Amino acid sequence: MTFLTLVRHGETDWNRARRIQGSTDIPLNDTGREQARAAGLALADALDRSTPTVIVSSDLSRANETARIIAGILDLSEPRTYPALQERGYGDAEGLTDTEFFDRWGPWATAEVPGAEPWPEVTTRALRGIQEAVADARALVAPDEPHVIAVAHGALIRTVISHATSGEYPEPGHKLANGSAHTFRVEDDWLSLLTSSALPV
Fold first, then answer.
1. pLDDT digits over 27-39, tens only?
2. Count of beta carbons in the 10 Å neighbourhood of residue 140
3. Which residue of 105, 158, 166, 196 has the lowest C-beta tally within 10 Å?
4. Does the annotation mark 34 as catalytic?
């Protein structure tokens, strides 16, 4: 059995401006770096240090820099990157503000955006990335079971939480904060949500 903690990356200027990033590679801003440090310190307090810990990230710079900051605080090796942990691609919506999005396509729940990655594909890709990262971490620390910290993105983490809770969480409209952490138990291909810094579980 492996524990997995998904951490949302720190803030970017596009987050601050409420612009949709998706697969666009936007770097952290100074607030985001502070959020990454705060996440690392919170993890330092929460982790069982007798368990080998491995940190990984999406290959987008905002996630990778967050992971590198956390790795420095926890004295871990540099994070390996996994493209499968990238944010959902939002197609024509990338770069628009949430208001501009609504004006073009209406509410998020019913919007059909040209070029956007379908949600079922995001879920499948996210779970594949998690399986790859967990398998690599297990091989690295074998025969022990690792705790895997994976820094990723809001929409991707939402779909993993939804999968693990059979759609119960997150509730529609609930935002996952930058730097928030969500811990799962991983057993074979089964995920269960244990704790979340942003949800009532």
1. 999 999 999 999 9
2. 13
3. 166
4. no
